[in-house]
Amino acid sequence: MKKISLALAFVLFSICTFAQDNTVEMATGLRSSGKIWVVVGVILTIVIGMYIYLFTIDKKVKKLEDK
Q1: In terms of pTM, does the model score above 0.70?
Q2: Between helices 25-33 and 36-66, what is the axis angle to 10°?
Q3: Which residues form the signal peptide (predicted)?
């Protein structure tokens, strides 16, 4: 019974995915107006900032471990 209900759940989930639209409306809207580059820039700035923060924390931890 458990296998049948699990299989039925998978079938229902797959039907829901077929019903969805394949186009991403927000991405096409941002791409057409040129604002997608603003989103890419903000994400890139956040990722670079996180890497810089992690490297400075790593240096501080190494300095404390050496003491």
Answers
A1: no
A2: 100
A3: 1-19
